[in-house]
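Example record

One chain of 438 residues, shown exactly as stored in the release files.
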Amino acid sequence: MRRLAPVLALPLLFATPALADPLRDAVAKDMPAVMPLYRDLHANPELSMKEVNTAAKLAVEARKLGFKVTEKVGVTGVVAVMENGPGPVLLIRADMDGLPVPEQTGLPFASKAKGVSATGVETSVMHACGHDTHMTAWVATAKRLAAMKDQWSGTLVMILQPGEETSEGAKAMLADGLFTRFPKPQYALAFHDSASLPAGTIGYTSGPAAATVDSVDLIVKGLGGHGAVPQATKDPIVLASRIVGALQTLVSRELDPQDAAVVTVGSFQAGAKHNVIPDEAKLLLTVRTYNDKARELMLGGIARIAKGEAIAAGVPEDKMPVVTVQRDTSTPAAINTPEFTARMAGFFAARFGKDRVTAVPPPMVGEDFGRYRDADKSIQSLLFWVGGVPRAKWDAAGGDLTTLPSLHSPFWAPEAETVISTATEAMTAAALDILKKG
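Predicted structure tokens for this chain:
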């Protein structure tokens, strides 16, 4: 996941309620006990679908709080259930995986962890997307709700999900019976730290909160030969270059300007020697859309442009480009239910003050949290953001987010305690409202 679009005209100071707040005070008292857990998680990240030690560590914490805990759901996922009388079922999710990024934050507890990727390559690992703050807030929220059982009625299903970064985890947990082995939720909540909001600010989007993500492989075929005799070849590098350029017109000239999409060529692989024209080139693309119409326009357009450019280059019919959409790994859009989002946005504004709660533009990031609502459209779902940029750095940037580390950056170091305390208060208060007695 990457940064959100810029948010303008945020106030310099946060409004804070004048009167003491019991929940806020309790969360503040919990912070000294949970921050060592954050530092431990930050220093010991694990790659997607390999979060074995992370899951085991947090399962212990949930059991201590009285939850019924099941491990290894969807490979390394954890499901912690607390039944507390009649009422709705609320799912609260945190994701666990780190990224193959060498940390450069300079923090005293910076990760030195190594891992082996799915392709067998050893790599440094870092919580460059802030999932360590998500997990810590998950534990802190579980602690508050367990301590406040007399104030709510219903069922909590708190899940720790693997593989968000690879879009595998939610799918794996659902396939392993998340909605059949455990109480199926009527509500689903999650938050994500933000590198585009000042620390302690809550951001929300009604409708699409993350885009549909498709990965596309494009094999461009040609006729190889000697680099000194190009006239005897059909150069796939030149053809692939034309395709890359033409693909930019899909968004700029074929998509309704009121809609949004991204088509990015993230990899261009061809050839192995200076003087040899290869037989083929391989392009790897990511496609981001919000709706089915735009999605099919982009995916169909990629195939059409690739074939058209090949015909223009004189490539024979039996060597037309091969376009493969990796639909098994496609991630559906994360849709925030409008009515539920409006309810929670108003609730957060009343609790934190309007200065700390703001609507943000829908980003083009991917988030497999959308799979839970996609599996059952009756679920009321909300993924919201909690700003992590330290106030001094936010002010110094003057609204220019390009001067700040983004999510997935080796330099991303959110103001962790502010993120965790804000998220814990927001999640706990939301759960108490959703599961309120009567």
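Notes: The longest strand covers residues 187-198.
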